[in-house]
TrEMBL record, chains A, B:
CDD domains: CBS_pair_Mg_transporter. GO terms for cellular component: plasma membrane. The chain crosses the membrane at residues 297-315, 371-394, 400-424, 436-459. It comes from the Bacteria. Residues 151-214, 216-272 form the CBS domain. InterPro entries: CBS_dom, CBS_dom_sf, Mg_transptr_MgtE_intracell_dom, MgtE_N_sf, MgtE_transporter, SLC41_membr_dom, SLC41_membr_dom_sf. The keyword Membrane applies. This is Magnesium transporter MgtE. Gene3D superfamilies: CBS-domain, MgtE N-terminal domain-like, SLC41 divalent cation transporters, integral membrane domain. It is found in: Cell membrane; Membrane.
Length: 460, 460
């Protein structure tokens, strides 16, 4: 039943893998038809081959590799997610893996080996040329998720005194050694410190005699090698960078980061945020049951504790509920509305913190707004819910109680939704990871306490 | 109290606006010091000026514009969010706005005018050269959020018979007319259909006599002008494109999309997903109270209805609760655990649908996994919670009831968390927008029904 519509959706968008491909691969594997397999894979981009390997199950993946392992090159390995990649590398002969990585740029090799165990890592490093190996080892010396890990060593630099003709002659005579993709020539001083850069478009459009220093791009930013990759991605997105030179602590040029890698980081950061907001540390569709259970368990455990806390609030009002069971019927509504309003505020806050749109200059204005929005929505829903409670249970005072509790909880939700993530960010924690638990605890506890407490005072 | 730590965080990352800047601007505005203002803004990237204008309140923004309106150029306008931009354009004289947009690439002009009212749009369009105006009007004829709207008209194309020398001569003699940024020369056939492209790096490294057709990039993709921008962003990220030619229905070259625009779309799509999962249609930190209330209200209203539905389930067990108030104390725990487990599953599903990692080839495997993960976590938490209930209320059977209800609800949560978003995607709805409401309704209803129903049967 589900197959049909998904297939349609694929036909619409065009970039998802076609269903036919999976059946064709299955047939080729069953027939042991290497030629057919070659034909099937040859039309695919490495990223698509990687997606295919990720989407099939482990057993079928091994069958495919047995028949088509020689088609898995470095580009395919780069595109695989960590877990599947480890499995594929473990399955392929060491020599094949070494051969596969030899043509990769240094940043891709780093990305590939950084998660491997030491023996596997060594096997790959040993297969590289000395120069490449040194480059990769130097990159691995930078902290994980730093610009130093993200950058590639392959770049084109030119001294300050060169003119356009010098640069063009250099490019023509070093054809073989140029990076696969490059968009700028980085101009450096004698101490190898970048002083500006020239786009290839500008270079091509200029006369040979023009000095490079005269056609520098206006906007020029260097990235410190120690900078976190999330910051790098932010800078690329904010300043529309295409590539940027990376410098070490002495401000010497050590590499270059290109926008496709920054885009990839941006995508991963978003994935992290979205999953963390839902209480999951990481996730791959190819994960097994054990891995998935482990990744879901911790947040559910935290939630159990917060839910028990809320239950303890309820239990202090057992006598009240025993006298008026309608309270038990209505109390989840107050808590649920608060939880949702709080989640709205905190999601906006987490996102604004990530995009640096929530700063000292506007924090108090945003807090004020969240509280007032909670008040306005609280009053509206208080009236609606008060009326419903009146009609349902025929008690005007019950309507008043749920209305007041609703206003209180929605105001607190707005406040908690902004203050908690900001405080977590201040404390150095990731607001996306922990805010949800805190905010819903607050709205549950406040919701039950306000509603049942008011009921105990007013109704009984 | 909050100022301090946020300021520290800024010093760490370096890309957020400095607190000092805001006070300096405030002082310059108070003193009416145009020269100081020029100095402050001249060191800022247009994107940072835009952020500054977004982060101050409406009144202060007008004061800044009064003093520094002449510093707001087209690049700054492009970077502003829609609401603030509308305010700024409304405040600046028409002539200033027209002057500001004149230097923009066509895609930026389109982005800028597409959300304006017709008279304001006309005022800007009339200020453009005829050729530019026609380009913008043609782009506006494509559907919103299509590749046609995203692309720029400015590009460099070459006929198939050219060699490297022809291309370089063309670039040198058309210096003034070249796009600000370009990375490829697109080679077209006599009917203007793109047949391949050449990177500038390749062009620079090749001898003048080499035909362009011999140095084509291996991977070459054209984007249909009608394609949705979300698909375009996916293609750039998946295939590491830097720029891609856009073609009309007759496959003729009509424009080019560059990766910085695609990265921007990817960022916006993520923002949309993350906010929609929390039940908000859109959000800007600069939004006022009325706008924010309106954007939060609909989802809270949906949530009210689903919460009432859950309450109706509870009310059918009023008699049961009246006999055993402990049920009222414990029932939110079952619902809350189900809601959280369901949210975990649905977030993974929504994300996997967005990255095309959830397809016909693995849907049943993923469904099976979610159900089994729900079962495993359900059993673990059943044992924990059963024991707690036993200790708390001294009733072994109450422990059994909450344990069984927990297992049932977590299995259903896993199932609903994957099936609902997939079904919504199939129905053409955005799974990020509506899944949350459906899934928590299911887990609330199932949670309360399983727990109270079992209690009614077993305990009473």
């Amino acid at each position: 039943m589900l197959d049909e519509p998904l297939q349609e959706a694929e036909a619409e968008d065009g970039y998802a893998l076609e269903k036919d491909l999976f059946s064709s691969v299955r047939l080729a594997v069953a027939a042991g038809d290497k030629v057919r397999m070659d034909a099937l894979f040859s039309g695919l981009h490495p990223a698509d081959i990687a997606d295919l390997l990720e989407q099939v199950d482990g057993g079928h993946r091994r069958e495919i590799l047995l028949l088509a392992g020689h088609l898995v090159d470095g580009d395919v390995l780069s595109e695989l997610n960590e877990d599947v990649r480890r499995q594929v590398i473990g399955f392929l002969p060491d020599a094949a893996v070494a051969e596969a990585v030899r043509d990769l740029e240094s940043d891709d090799v780093v990305d590939l080996v950084e998660d491997l165990e030491v023996p596997e890592q060594q096997a790959i490093l040993n297969a590289l040329d000395v120069a490449d190996r040194v480059a990769v080892e130097q990159a691995l010396a930078y902290p994980e998720t730093s610009a130093g890990r993200l950058m590639q060593r392959e770049l084109v630099a030119a001294p300050e005194h060169w003119n356009v003709g010098d640069a063009i002659d250099f490019l023509r005579s070093n054809k073989k050694k140029l990076p696969d993709q490059f968009y700028h020539i980085i101009v450096v001083d004698p101490a190898m410190r970048p002083v500006g850069y020239v786009t290839l478009g500008r270079l091509l459009a200029s006369k040979r005699a023009v000095p490079l220093t005269e056609i520098f791009e206006e906007s020029f930013r260097v990235i410190p090698a120690a900078q976190d990759e999330a910051e790098v991605a932010y800078a690329f997105n904010q300043y529309h960078l295409i590539s940027a030179p990376v410098v070490d602590a002495q401000e010497r040029l050590v590499g270059v980061i290109t926008i496709d890698d920054a885009m990839n980081v941006l995508d991963e950061e978003h994935e992290e945020d979205i999953l963390r907001l839902a209480g999951i540390s990481e996730s791959n569709p190819s994960d097994g049951i054990v891995a998935t259970t482990k990744r879901r368990f911790p947040w559910l455990f935290v939630n159990l504790i917060t839910a028990i806390l809320a239950s303890m609030v309820i239990s202090t009002f057992e006598a009240t509920i025993a006298q008026l069971v309608a309270l038990a019927v209505l109390m989840p509504i107050v808590a649920s509305m608060g939880g949702n309003a709080g989640t709205q505020s905190l999601t906006v806050a987490v996102r604004a913190l990530a995009t640096k749109d929530l700063t000292v200059s506007n924090i108090w204005r945003v807090v004020r707004r969240e509280v007032l929005v909670g008040l306005v929505n609280g009053v509206i829903f208080a009236v609606v819910m008060g009326a419903i409670a009146l009609i349902w249970f025929g008690s005007p005072m019950l309507g008043v109680v749920i209305g007041v509790a609703m206003v209180v909880n929605l105001v607190i939700a707005g406040l908690a939704g902004i203050v908690i993530p900001v405080a977590l960010e201040k404390a150095g924690a990731d607001p996306a990871l922990a805010s949800g638990a805190f905010v819903t605890t607050v709205t549950d506890v406040v919701g039950f306490f306000a509603f049942l407490g008011l009921a105990a005072v007013i109704l009984l």
